[in-house]
Amino acid sequence: VQLVESGGGLVQPGGSLRLSCAASGFTFSMYYMTWYRQAPGKERELVAGITNFGSTTNYQDSVKGRFTISRDNDKNMVYLQMTSLKPEDTAVYYCYVPGFSSWGQGTQVTVSS
Fold this sequence. Notes:
By secondary structure, this protein is an all-beta fold.
């Protein structure tokens, strides 16, 4: 299993970013996919999840209405569209497939003026 995240960066409060995750090494369309994040000094936390065909999505309360998870099963990609970003969204963001032990390197998101 290989997961490669990209799309992070420095953004001002209120700004937007779109994270991407390229997945390989497993049958992507069969698995629920998730995004996690880890802020400095804090535990890694679940941000969002999406069912294998994208019919159902789930979000942490703090990001509901601001973040949107999506996937493209033809490209083995999962995305996280983030809007109205806040300083407390600053973290390293990871995609993760439940049931496997592999994590990618993550992508840093910094929200600061």
